[in-house]
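hi! just following up on the protien thing from before. the input was this:
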Amino acid sequence: MELKNNFNGKYFVGNRKNSKYEESKIIIFPIGYEGTVSYNKGTINGPEAIINASQYLENYDEEFEIELNNIHTFKISKFDENIKIETALDFVYENSKKILNDNKFPLMIGGEHSLTLGLVRALKEKYNEFTIIQIDAHTDLDESYNNNKYSHASVMKRINEIENINIIQLGIRSITKEIHQFVKNNNQICTIFSHEIKQMPISKLIEKLIPNIKKNVFITIDVDGFDPHIFPNTGTPEPNGLEWQYTINLFKQILKEKNIIGLDFMEFSSNKQEHYSDFSAAKLIFKLLCLIESNKKTI
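and the predicted 3d structure came back as:
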């Protein structure tokens, strides 16, 4: 299969060491799309803002004592909002499949959360069964939204229909009564609300989660899962979100026992007047990659 978008251009963290596709272990593909966004727009430009901000990061992490190299960054792709979501999903799927077939680690920067389905479809073909850990303020379990079953508000409902994939949702704090009942009755979905996490030591949360996590894990992050003081630039910011270090420490514990097979970072909106969020987003992505590298599981 020929790559849809192989490009040596503006690199994540400005890193060119061992950054050719063939030599890299990590492949970042940024995709801007907001065709089903329901509130504030800007996700079409979010990936570009993150890549630009990453140029000012050091490629060394003091917490994990790692200098991260071997990253290849695809050219930023943008899909007009009039393009059907199915077209964007096919693009994500084809690129993800190529990356995985070449035994590389996929990291998608979005773009709206609906795109995650394309990456999950490719992961399913390679790994068959795995757990998705979803950081999010919303469940994204609507059957459809605005008559679109592939809406960003329905992405996890579509994923829940795929066999051998279970979902753990962390940081949820916006849900309907009907969906709350749905998750209570669904043994493939474990939803931990933000107010519960804030009252729970990490050790207790890990004790609750680990029995529900398969060997292989895919992490999908909607930035609104975090508190708005960290990421104000997102379509639907919700108060009382997850905190930075708590989340990093949580993933530290999970990855001691599990193998991460992919990552995405979604729903980030660009704001030309405010760059704090851009830099924080780039920093969090880099931090998570260093955490994965430190565990030497996949990368």
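The CA atoms of residues 117 and 159 lie 7 Å apart.
The radius of gyration is 17 Å.
cheers
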